[in-house]
Design a protein that fits this description.
This protein folds into 2 domains: 107 residues, SH3 type barrels (Roll); 38 residues. The chain contains 2 helices and 6 strands. The termini are far apart.
Length: 176
């Protein structure tokens, strides 16, 4: 066989493979999930079959990575359960996933948040700048008010300390 015939055979098989791949992926991509990215806190509702019954189990955590493309796209979620870090990798177009709900969105500057594995406590859940999710209002004004009151309290406490020091000096001078 000459090389021209071999190339044409490969081209036709490539075209057939892509058409077959498109028809298979079309069925899986019918499921629409909300837009989410690394750093977001989400709830994944998964179908679990136990015996003859099916139930929904919720896994809530922060997305630490997303990999792949097309129907092979996966995302990794991390949560802290009873002091132990738990990570699960979910295929995005898996039939096991019933629903995905975005709880909080965050803006992060990295594509992989593996550094959260080393963190402990509340620090393990915080990544990036928090963006309010739908129907949620971040209390930025509340924080500003609290900062102002703490400044005023600091000034008042300084004044009290100064007054007490002056009283102590007067007492010491009168005792002599």
């Amino acid at each position: 066989m000459n090389t021209a015939k071999i190339r044409s055979v490969y081209k036709t098989t490539d075209i057939m493979d892509t058409k077959l791949q498109e028809t298979v992926t079309k069925e899986y991509k019918k499921v629409k999930h909300p837009d989410f990215s690394v750093g977001d806190i989400i709830e994944v509702h998964t179908r679990i079959q136990e015996g003859g019954k099916e139930r929904i189990q919720i896994f809530k955590g922060i997305i630490i990575s997303m990999k792949g493309s097309g129907i092979g796209k996966t995302f990794t979620i991390r949560k802290i359960s009873y002091g132990v870090g738990v990570e699960k990798i979910f295929p995005l177009y898996s039939p096991v996933i019933a629903k995905i709900k975005v709880v909080k969105q965050a803006r992060v500057k990295r594509s992989k948040l593996y550094y959260l594995r080393d963190r402990v406590g509340k620090a393990a859940l915080k990544a990036g700048i928090q963006i309010p999710a739908e129907g949620e209002y971040l209390e930025t004004q509340q924080l500003e008010i609290e900062e102002d009151t703490t400044k005023e309290q600091d000034e008042e406490s300084k004044e009290k300390v100064e007054k007490e020091e002056k009283k102590d000096e007067k007492d010491q001078s009168s005792n002599k």
